[in-house]
From TrEMBL:
Transmembrane segments: none annotated. Residues 250-302, 374-426, 501-552 form the PAC domain. Keywords: Coiled coil, Kinase, Phosphoprotein, Transferase. Residues 540-570 form a coiled coil. The keyword Phosphoprotein applies. The keyword Phosphoprotein applies. It comes from the Archaea. This is histidine kinase. PROSITE patterns: HIS_KIN, PAC, PAS. NCBIfam families: sensory_box. It comes from Natronoglomus mannanivorans. InterPro entries: GAF, GAF-like_dom_sf, HATPase_C_sf, HATPase_dom, His_kinase_dom, HisK_dim/P_dom, HisK_dim/P_sf, PAC. Residues 570-785 form the Histidine kinase domain.
Length: 789
């Protein structure tokens, strides 16, 4: 609803109304002259400069499309005028006026063509089918208005200055009213008006039908009173306030219920109605049902999204080429290659590696000649300037006559694939060399045919020619007769159940030599069925011989160790009796003749007694050391808290003599020899008290789990004199003592005995210490399942 007086004013106001919206950036109307069949510029809006006087050369694209519209009498659309124009000057015109697509709408009423309306937009999707249909309907409405205005102008007569003006105004008002009534009643759009109190003062038939109300029932009522929801009414009231304040139209989109059609989507415009003084006296509104257009746009958007998703998922670039590939129209590289939106003829040098250009051109020529698909792998320059690989595939687009109009192609980034192929080639080469170095060969069995496939190294191992690859049954005959049943059983089980195997077996070479191999087989299953069967064969003849020699040596060493332990036990046991006799007689001499001896004699006697005592202690220690493995008790669950309590009780006298403090955390259960573990704890605690220095001993025992809970680390920490870290390994050697007898007593066997006890329990023992900083002896024992801790 555009109030105007003259036809020319109406055309201009129509253009301005279009550009006032956000949908169209340019509007232009040309009048059609039936005698000359020309379209003459009549009104425009939105152009950076007035286009009405430009020549046909300056606006050739407009004249050409307008002429096509006149001839076809239907909406003509020029899409993608910037990215893909039919002519280069059309792109220049579009860029100059800031739009991408334009539509030319015929203004036809009762088969008479009044002119052409051009609308332009910068929207990426251009003009869709639903919008074209709406524009065609609008073109008929504008043409009807032109016809009515022309008729009114022809009926005017000149009757003097005053009478003429009165007659023109009176006739114009009546004609204008008829025009408004006709347009408003015939349009499917909702046409209405508000006063400044938000009350309806006008509503056309389409709006009354949507409400399901009569004109009398709705006039003078507010939005709420008519039946709008509160949020909807408040929104429009805010918009009316804004139009009154700014005197500018406002446009929006909203969904609400139609009385008959249900939920619909509407596009609406509120425009100010100004009085003679330029103040807003009312608000005029038009609303158009855009539900179908929205559905179409949504379907188009989803279709485009699906297409884009497909393209993005299947390739890293999309391009369009001219029929002869002389020009690239468009390339969307998606970060793989540099994008190009402008047609370019130097694409070959810009994108394709020089060494591959000849191959690419040859493949293109063949595709053009045969009208077949172009596809090949070649190197390209990537977006970051580096060289990559692509698999490019393009198909020809044909017209109705079967001629190629363009090529659509997709380029996939296969750079990583090519890198992996090169790595695989290097790996295969390395594998072949490694096979020879490690004496390992590969094999495979065809599950269906039972045919056997070997790598070259297997042929070398078997000493047969590469053309003598036998079937599975004959291959099994090459194994030593004593090992054939186990090999056959392993292979049958693998083919039947899908279980892998790893075994050792003997083979007979073609020359009759017997060699040992390690045979591994790994079947691959799908849904429980074996689909492939592969493995490896490694020559382990030399290793097997070494292992046998080593086993013989171990057996001899064990026998030797057993004899040495027996000897040590016998020697230490047999020395006990003569040493006891020596000690006894020395004490008799000391008791009976001490007074008869001078000072030197008494000192010599003390040396002899002390030496005998130390000799007895060493023999006792040696006896304990030799009996760790042979005379120990069986391993069982042991509560280390109980062990600590027993040891602590046994050391009470020494603890009291040294004013020692010995503490322990809650200790775990382990698996071990109770007696030997008591000996272990007693030796370590006695050692910590003995080497405490000048201060009273402070000793602490702690425990923590290790090796995923399979073992415990026990630590005995003191604050004594400490040990030089460089001497840490010596303390566990038999008869090794870091201090003289004058400084500290000791046989040099206690820590060696601890190490042997820990070793019998499958653990390790070590020392962490610094001189003057105390020492921590730590050892590992197996965890028991008797309790969590």
């Amino acid at each position: 609803m555009i109030p105007t007086i003259t036809e020319q004013e109406m055309r201009q106001r129509v253009c301005e109304q279009f550009t006032a919206s956000s949908a169209y950036s340019v509007a232009w109307i040309g009048c059609y002259n039936s005698e000359t069949e020309a379209v003459i510029p009549a009104a425009s809006a939105g152009f950076s400069k007035n286009p009405l006087g430009e020549s046909t050369t300056e606006a050739s694209f407009r004249q050409e499309l307008a002429t096509e519209t006149v001839q076809r009498v239907e909406v003509t659309v020029g899409q993608n005028l910037v990215a893909d124009p039919p002519r280069e000057e059309w792109r220049e015109q579009a860029l100059e006026h800031g739009y991408r697509s334009c539509a030319f709408v015929p203004l036809v009423s009762e088969e008479r063509l009044y002119g052409v309306l051009q609308l332009a937009t910068d929207r990426p999707h251009g003009f869709g089918p639903a919008e074209r249909e709406s524009l065609a309907e609008l073109g008929r409405t504008i043409a009807y208005a032109c016809e009515d205005a022309e008729s009114a102008a022809n009926d005017d007569t000149v009757q003097g200055d005053g009478q003429t003006e009165l007659a023109r105004v009176t006739a114009g008002t009546a004609q204008e009213r008829r025009l408004y009534e006709t347009i408003i009643s015939s349009t499917p759009d909702l046409v209405y008006a508000f006063d400044l109190d938000y009350r309806f003062v006008f509503a056309n038939d389409a709006l009354l039908e949507m409400w399901g109300q009569t004109y009398d029932e709705s006039m003078g009522k507010t939005l709420l009173e008519v039946g709008y929801e509160p949020w909807h009414a408040e929104m429009h009231e805010r918009e009316i306030d804004e139009v009154v304040e700014t005197k500018e139209p406002i446009r929006g989109e909203v969904a609400f219920d139609h009385a008959k059609l249900g939920r619909r989507i509407y596009d609406y415009i509120f425009a100010p109605v100004l009085d003679d003084e330029g103040e807003v006296e009312a608000i005029a509104g038009t609303t158009r049902d855009i539900t179908e257009r929205k559905k179409t746009e949504e379907a188009l958007q989803k279709s485009e999204e699906r297409f884009r998703t497909l393209v993005n998922a299947s390739s890293d670039g999309v391009y369009r080429m001219s029929p002869d590939w002389s020009e690239m129209h468009h390339l969307e590289g998606q970060g793989f290659m540099a994008d190009t939106n402008d047609p370019t003829s130097d694409w070959l040098d810009k994108y394709v590696h020089p060494d591959d250009q000849a191959r690419v051109v040859e493949a293109i020529d063949e595709a053009i000649r045969t009208e077949s698909t172009f596809e090949m792998e070649h190197r390209v320059e990537q977006a970051d300037g580096s060289v990559g690989w692509t698999f490019s595939r393009a198909v020809a687009m044909l017209n109705e006559d079967g001629d190629i109009v363009e090529w659509i192609g997709m380029a996939s980034d296969i750079t990583e694939q090519k890198d992996r192929e090169r790595e695989l080639e290097r790996a295969l080469d390395l594998l072949e060399k490694t096979e020879r170095i490690a004496d390992v060969g590969g094999w495979a069995v065809d599950v269906e045919t039972q045919d056997v496939f070997w790598t070259d190294h297997v042929f070398e191992l078997l000493e047969i020619d590469t053309d003598q690859e036998p079937p599975l049954e004959e291959a099994l005959d090459m194994y030593h007769e004593a090992d054939q049943p186990s090999v056959e059983e392993a292979i049958e089980n693998a083919l039947g159940s899908g279980e892998s195997f790893d075994m050792e077996a003997r083979i007979r070479t073609d020359r009759g030599d017997v060699r040992w191999i390690r045979l591994q087989g790994v079947p691959e299953t799908v849904d429980g069925e074996v689909v492939s069967f592969r493995g490896a064969a490694q020559d382990i003849t030399e290793r097997t011989e070494r292992e046998r020699r080593l086993e013989d040596l171990v057996d001899k060493l064990e026998e030797s160790n057993e004899r040495l332990e027996q000897f040590a036990y016998a020697a230490s046991h047999d020395l006990q009796e003569p040493l006891r006799m020596v000690s006894s007689y020395l004490r008799l001499v000391e008791d009976r003749y001490a007074d008869a001896l001078d000072e030197d004699g008494q000192e010599f006697l003390e040396f002899a007694v002390d030496g005998a005592d130390r000799m007895r202690a060493m023999i006792d220690g040696l006896l304990e050391y030799s009996r760790v493995d042979t005379r120990g008790e069986s391993l069982e669950a042991v509560d280390l808290d109980d062990v600590f309590e027993d040891v602590h009780q046994d050391l009470q006298v020494k603890i009291a003599e040294h004013d020692a403090q010995i503490s322990a955390e809650e200790l775990p259960h382990t698996v071990g020899d109770p007696g030997q573990l008591r000996q272990l704890f007693q030796n370590l605690l006695d050692n910590a008290i003995e080497y405490s220095g000048e201060e009273p001993p402070r000793v602490h025992i702690s425990a923590e789990q290790a090796n995923d809970g399979d073992e415990w680390v026990l630590s005995v920490t003191d604050e004594g004199i400490g040990i030089d870290p460089e001497q840490a390994d010596r303390v566990f050697e038999v008869f090794q003592s870091l201090h003289s007898q004058d400084e500290y007593d000791g046989t040099g066997i206690g820590l060696a005995l601890c190490e042997r006890i820990v070793d019998r329990h499958g653990g390790d023992i070590w020392l962490e210490s610094e001189l003057g900083e105390g020492a921590t002896f730590s050892f590992t024992l197996p965890a028991s399942n008797d309790r969590e801790t």
